[in-house]
Amino acid sequence: MQTVESRFIAVVSIIYLVGIIGFMIPELNPLFIKLTPWNLVLSFGVAWLFHKKWEITHILGIVIIGILGFFIELLGVKTGIIFGSYNYGATLGSKWQGVPFLIGLNWASMVFYSSSILAGRIKNTFGKSLVGATMMTAYDFFLEPVAVRFDFWHWNTNQIPLQNYITWFICSFLFFLLLDGLSKPIRNRMAASMFWIQMGFFIILYILIRLF
Fold this sequence. Notes:
Layout: H1 2-24, H2 29-49, H3 56-79, E1 86-88, E2 95-96, E3 99-100, H4 102-118, H5 125-149, E4 153-155, H6 162-182, H7 189-211
Antiparallel strand pairs: 1-4, 2-3
Helix pairs in contact: 1-2, 1-7, 2-4, 2-7, 3-4, 3-6, 4-5, 4-7, 5-6, 5-7
């Protein structure tokens, strides 16, 4: 199983490297943008495929985070008072009330991935939540300019507000508290790798869009 898992991680890494190329080549860009929703869903599915201990409370926690994440984003889009004033583009696919369904999955997956990294490493719930929220906010720092460039979403002021990062940290912190309160996540090497692969993907694109 370990060998199979390592091979999957290698394949996923290659897919994301190809994705970087596809996003940066104008002729390929439309195709790779269309593939983005499928990639998010498949990444989430592959992470669960290698999960070694399924617990109903853990699964319930991830589902609740996904639902809460969606409705927080919905309130954010409608009011502009949570993250700042922004609107979603077409890249993340089908929407309800202007918010892509996949944004809930994105919240759920990122908490799942990052909690898998920290599982068993930090015993204190508060400390684990602080570290997890910091990881999530660092991820968002590199994600934001890439998201704007490739029509994930757009800020009405054409600037990413500090408020966005503060609220992202607070939401992430509360989601970690929620998940840890319901269930103690276990280590999932594939999920942990997915976090670092996606982080690397956005860091490289972050650098490239500033150079070109």
